[in-house]
């Protein structure tokens, strides 16, 4: 008996991807767009890489924490966006470009949303770091994951005949062309 069709597995894979994507976006929205009760707020940083330079001047531990937080905030999108798309046979470069563009747009939307939230500060460097985190996660995980899924995953489901032996896999059936009637 066949455990399930490939189409059903792809639908379940996409459903899990969409669910995890929505959960992650809700978490990011809550973390980034909730009002903060702070006594003072720094000015918005609209100069590229000025915030990263300031973080580096605070020492390696503080810089690693701040830069790492910027890289990790949206990094799961580098995996979840292609997972929600559910395509296994796609160009790695186009997948990377689509994912990074979507990550950059989501990061931009978060930064624009922060302009009206008390206690939140707009920082152009966080947009760069968020987008870089999406790209790094995508490059490290998605090509390997897609290759593994194309091979059949860790446990490949195979059709087994009633005798318990693996059923032979024949050629793919084709539909013959029928000519037009005279």
From TrEMBL:
Record keyword Membrane present: yes
VanZ-like domain ranges (all copies): 22-141
Basic and acidic residues bias spans: 156-165
Keywords on record: Membrane, Transmembrane, Transmembrane helix
Highest taxon above the source species: Bacteria
Residues spanning the membrane: 12-33, 67-84, 96-115, 127-149
Pfam family, one: VanZ
Location of the region described as Disordered in the Swiss-Prot/TrEMBL record: 153-182
Signal peptide segment: none
PANTHER family named in the record: INTEGRAL MEMBRANE PROTEIN, MEMBRANE PROTEIN-RELATED
Protein name from the UniProt record: VanZ family protein
Organism: Streptomyces castrisilvae
Organism lineage: Bacteria, Bacillati, Actinomycetota, Actinomycetes, Kitasatosporales
């Amino acid at each position: 008996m066949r455990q399930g069709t490939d189409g059903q597995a792809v639908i379940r894979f996409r459903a899990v991807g969409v669910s995890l994507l929505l959960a992650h976006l809700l978490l990011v929205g809550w973390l980034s767009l909730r009002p903060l009760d702070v006594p003072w707020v720094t000015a918005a940083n609209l100069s590229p890489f000025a915030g990263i330079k300031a973080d580096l001047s605070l020492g390696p531990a503080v810089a690693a924490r701040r830069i790492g937080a910027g890289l990790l905030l949206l990094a799961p999108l580098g995996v979840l966006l292609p997972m929600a798309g559910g395509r296994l046979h796609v160009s790695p470069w186009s997948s990377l470009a689509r994912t990074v563009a979507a990550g950059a747009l989501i990061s931009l939307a978060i930064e624009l949303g922060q302009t009206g939230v008390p206690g939140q500060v707009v920082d152009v460097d966080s947009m760069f770091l968020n987008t870089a985190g999406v790209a790094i996660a995508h490059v490290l995980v998605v090509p390997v994951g897609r290759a593994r899924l194309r091979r059949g995953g860790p446990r490949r489901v195979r059709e087994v005949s009633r005798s318990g032996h693996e059923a032979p896999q024949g050629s793919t059936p084709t539909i013959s062309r029928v000519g037009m009637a005279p």
